[in-house]
Amino acid sequence: MKNKRAMELSINFLVVMILGIAMLTMGVVFVRKMFTGASEMKDKLDKQTEGELEKLMTSGERVALPYTKKEVKGGKTVIFGLGILNVNDPSGTGQSVFNIDVDCNSKVGEITCPANSPTIIVIPTVTIKNNEDEKIPIAIKGGDTGTYIIDVKVCRSTDSNFDDPCDGSPDATEYYDNSLHKIYVKVV
Fold first, then answer.
1. Is 59 in contact with 110 (CB distance < 8 Å)?
2. Which end of the chain has fewer CB atoms within 10 angstroms, the N or the C?
3. Residue 149: which of 121, 98, 99, 114 has the closest Cα?
4. What is the tens place of the pLDDT at every residue in 111-144?
5. Which of helix, strand or coil describes residue 137?
6. Nearest to residue 151, comparing CAs of 133, 172, 165?
7. Is the whole-model pTM more than 0.70?
8. pLDDT, tens digit, for every residue of 7-54?
9. Contact status, residue 104 vs residue 118, Cβ threshold 8 Å
């Protein structure tokens, strides 16, 4: 009788052990597929953004911002693509310096951006040869929840000191393509 119970206990232990190993293996495979799929999706989004930028700049857009609305979790980062096509270089040097000014304008429902608004990271100055283009990432890290309106200004420097021509005046003619661009970031 003792041997029969010991045998049942050993068999039960082996069955539980095999089921546990099988479940662990399935969990590892599932998690791996999720992460692989997520990184492939990120690559496709990046390629999609690059393709849209290329398409817009090929059609003659001097400043291209194909995606203007995105959602991000607080503390996470979202990337927007900005394209600049340098045409009619006035300096005669064969290249122009462009200033990129990206600022939080306001939060929906408020007049200004609050203290814990999204953090914006962008290359402030880029040099582009005449008749060539440049693709610049704009990284925005989510802050407090809400929808934020982000202003994107692209200005071409016209003097040799490369002073920032985006001086903040409301006159749109100071902007390279005569328009102020907007990005809408919803932080959830």
1. no
2. N
3. 114
4. 888 888 888 888 888 888 888 888 888 888 888 8
5. strand
6. 172
7. no
8. 777 888 889 999 999 999 988 887 776 665 545 544 455 777 777 877
9. yes
d(CA 91, CA 98): 12
Scored b (16 or more CB within 10 A) or e, 58-89 reads: eeebbbbbbeeeeebeeeeebbbbbbbbbeee
Q: What integer pLDDT is reported at residue 161 of this predicted model? A: 47
pLDDT(171) > 70: no
Where does residue 162 fall: left (phi above 0), alpha (psi -120 to 50 degrees), or beta otherwise? left
Question: Which tokens belong to 93?
Answer: 């040097």
**Cα separation of 185 and 78, whole Å?**
9
The Cα–Cα gap between 158 and 34 comes to: 49
Contact status, residue 126 vs residue 102, Cβ threshold 8 Å? no
Please check whether residue 150 is in contact with residue 103, taking contact to mean a CB–CB distance below 8 angstroms.
yes
Element counts in the chain: helices (H) and strands (E): 1, 9
Mean pLDDT of the chain: 80
Contact 119, 70 (CB under 8 A): no
Angle (CA) 175 181 185, round 5°: 150
d(CA 2, CA 129): 88
